[in-house]
Amino acid sequence: MRVLVTGSSGFIGKHLCAELTRRGHEPVPFDRPHGDVRSSVRLDFACRESGAGAVINLAGMLGTPELFGSERDAAEVNILGALNVYDAAVKRGVPVVQIGTGHKGQPNPYAITKACAEDLGLARVRWLGERVVVVRA
Questions:
Q1: What is the CATH number of domain 2-136?
Q2: Where are the domains of the chain?
Q3: What is the value of pTM for the model shown?
Q4: Average pLDDT value for residue range 18-44
Q5: Of 22, 29, 21, which is closest to residue 5 (Cα–Cα)?
């Protein structure tokens, strides 16, 4: 199966793509500069044109204390970007795996924005019946 992987050039993303390949799947990388989850148009295009049967969202603006002063940027990437991923997947009728950080409840912009993305995904499951799964490492 083809799997669109956002955040594919990060540490976890690279290892995930290698593991997907090892298991006989075809990862479709989506990461900056060629793809940015803040662009719903590019994300929708990539999801449609790749023929992916699933999406794994690893995209995120990283940093703990480094993100103070950049909270808006973190919210755009980590929250709005996740919503773009969910929307693109729903249009294609494919499931999304939202990778959780395991840092829920910590008072920093990274943990707060990533937890929000997870909660929004789970809310969409409950209220809209969308296919979003949150996996925490």
A1: 3.40.50.720
A2: 2-136
A3: 0.94
A4: 96
A5: 29
